[in-house]
Design goal:
Distance between the termini: 100 Å
Strand content: 25-35%
Number of strands: 15
Structural class: alpha/beta
Mean pLDDT: 82
CATH class of the largest domain: Alpha Beta
Shape: elongated
Number of helices: 10
Low-confidence stretches: 1-18, 171-189, 315-324
CATH topology of the largest domain: Aminopeptidase
């Protein structure tokens, strides 16, 4: 290098070129750290993107899944009047397609938007009381990002209020206080829960059900019988009784199940009066639920009843909820045992007042009997395709006797349940 060039280099940056290598390395690292600070802060400030909202389920249970490109820290709480779940997502921007947020099943509405400059909120409105089985965040296995999974299940108003009280005991946050640190309030013991019965008049509205040989509609017969049974059961003041419908309206099968669960029913009775291709056959049948039908005719009856939603143009996808929790599996088994016990009691009682078909206790895959925690039976009072059965079903005196026998069976079953504390 010529002397003139060396002098210029010293003036422009000679101090750098003449420093020892170690000093230059330290200075370089310090410069990188100075740049990394703002870059890291900018990355940390970048909002999480939430997208691809999905919802599946029915009137008894709903699952919501939301995809996110970063790990969220959701906070949630429940509200009443109306029943709602509120989920706050700090540092998250929602990019949800409104078409994906269409309500279904238990969910009556989905609302979402910015809570402030950085946080977002999702509000899920329910058709009735519900419990939150989980708000979980999981890393995606086959793709980058995370997913938030929300599971809601229909419940009783009492259980919903208890969840609100528990929420208040944890200062309104589901994440701030471990269960072991929650405040416990002492008080008087709760009064025993009354034995609650939900009676389901089959069909209704656009779905008339079967039609008798002289034009009698199944939906009319079932509603009359259900109203009379409710009045009979309420006379002694021992039972709390609800109807899934008290007028000529259509209800989906899963809606009927939801009503039973939300009232906290101890027993669910679905009333029907079918037809059969053999007009000489008559008599009553009591069904319980089973994955395997007891006979071909029972399978056919269940198939017809399960088509109710489709015939009314209201069919929805039947969500497949696998039983993964051993405790829930045990609940289902116990419920099934109680359903069979009541069915046998009911068959014995009905034999006093009406003709029964051969092998009157049968089973098949009736969707309306699938509440996991409510003993349930479906009663076919007779066949409208048989002129004698149709005449009896329209006769008030015959119905009164049949109602009395059904009520007697319920009293026997309730006495055994209350006596055992279950």
């Amino acid at each position: 290098m010529r002397a003139r060039d060396a002098k210029a280099a010293a003036g422009a940056g000679g101090a750098w070129t003449t420093q020892p290598f170690a000093a230059r390395a330290v200075a370089f690292l310090l410069a990188l750290l100075a740049l990394a600070g703002p870059l890291a802060a900018a990355e940390a400030a970048k909002p999480i993107k939430a997208y691809d909202y999905k919802m599946a389920g029915d009137a008894s249970r709903v699952r919501l899944v939301l995809q996110l490109d970063g790990e969220p820290q959701p906070r949630w709480f429940q509200l009443r009047a109306p029943h709602r779940l509120v989920i706050d997502l700090p540092g998250t921007r929602l990019a949800i397609d409104p078409a994906e947020a269409t309500p279904r099943g238990l969910v009556s509405g989905v609302h979402y938007g910015k809570l402030d400059d950085s946080d977002s909120r999702i509000v899920i409105a329910s058709k009735g009381p519900f419990l939150v089985e989980g708000v979980d965040v999981q890393a995606n296995e086959a793709s980058p990002g995370y997913r938030m999974i929300v599971d809601l299940v229909a419940s009783t108003e009492k259980a919903f209020q208890a969840a609100l009280a528990d929420q208040m005991a944890t200062t309104g946050s589901t994440q701030s206080t471990p269960k072991g640190d929650r405040v416990v309030h002492s008080g008087a013991a709760e009064a025993p829960k009354p034995f609650t019965i939900v009676i389901d008049p089959g069909h209704g509205g656009i779905d008339s059900g079967a039609e008798g040989v002289s034009g009698t509609l199944e939906k009319t017969v079932t509603l009359s019988f259900a109203r009379e049974l409710k009045a009979r059961l309420e006379q002694g003041g021992r039972f709390v009784v609800h109807l899934t419908r008290d007028n000529d309206v259509f209800l989906r099968l899963d809606e009927r199940v939801r009503v039973a669960r939300q009232y906290g029913a101890n027993l669910f009775i679905s009333i029907h009066a079918d037809t059969i291709r053999y007009p000489a056959i008559r008599g009553a049948t009591v069904y319980t639920v089973s994955d395997q039908a007891s006979d071909a005719e029972s399978a056919a009856v269940a198939a017809r009843e399960n088509l109710s939603d489709e015939l009314a143009g209201m069919s929805i996808e039947d969500a497949n909820h696998e039983v993964s929790d051993i405790l829930m599996d045990l609940v289902r088994r116990e419920t099934h045992t109680f359903s069979i016990r009541f069915a046998r009691t009911l068959v014995d009682a009905l034999s006093n007042s009406m003709e029964l078909i051969k092998n009157p206790h049968r089973h098949a895959g009736f969707r309306v009997l699938k509440a996991p925690d409510v003993p349930s039976v479906l009663v076919e009072l007779g066949y409208l395709s048989n002129a004698q059965d149709e005449t009896l079903l329209k006769d008030e005196a015959w119905r009164a006797k049949a109602v009395g026998d059904v009520a007697a069976a319920i009293e026997t079953f309730a006495g055994a349940r209350l006596g055992s504390g279950k």
